[in-house]
Specification:
141 residues; two-stranded antiparallel ribbon; 25% helix; seven-stranded antiparallel sheet; globular; single chain
Length: 141
């Protein structure tokens, strides 16, 4: 749970009160952080994504969507989907029925995304995306 709490803290730090930002660090693909709506059960969804371009199309490389929870210990953000357009890959941790009720969890993907997110946040720090020198473009206040 501590990792999910750290993810929530990091995402909120990157957004810094905005709904969508692009963060630019020279030498790296821009990083987009965006509130993309709510889940079927009303929880906040935030996308963390690098975009590339291929033949004029924006390509997610990668895009991870985080589902926020309000817990007694604080806010937590669980990675629930992964997308990489260059690989034609789109994966969801949870499956839902037609009423929006969770019916299945892909446990191996849940663990893989947890580890990927942990490493990605470390890498983003090392690359300077959390540094005050990173250029922040507010796309939606």
């Amino acid at each position: 749970m501590k990792l999910y709490q750290a993810s929530a803290t990091d995402l909120n730090h990157l957004l810094n009160g905005a709904r969508a930002v692009r963060i630019i660090v020279p030498g790296y693909m821009p990083l987009s952080v965006e509130e993309i709506g709510v889940s079927q059960d009303g929880r906040r969804l935030v996308s963390l994504c690098h975009y590339g371009e291929q033949n004029g199309d924006l390509m997610r490389d990668p895009d991870i969507v985080f589902l926020f929870y309000n817990l007694p210990e604080g806010v937590a953000a669980e990675p629930v989907s992964f997308r990489n357009d260059y690989l034609g890959l789109s994966q969801e941790v949870y499956r839902y029925d037609e009423t929006g009720r969770r019916t299945h969890v892909v446990s191996s993907l849940k663990q893989d995304l947890k580890e990927f997110a942990r490493v990605w946040f470390v890498t983003l720090r090392d690359q300077g995306f959390f540094a005050p020198t990173a250029v922040r473009e507010i796309l939606s206040p």
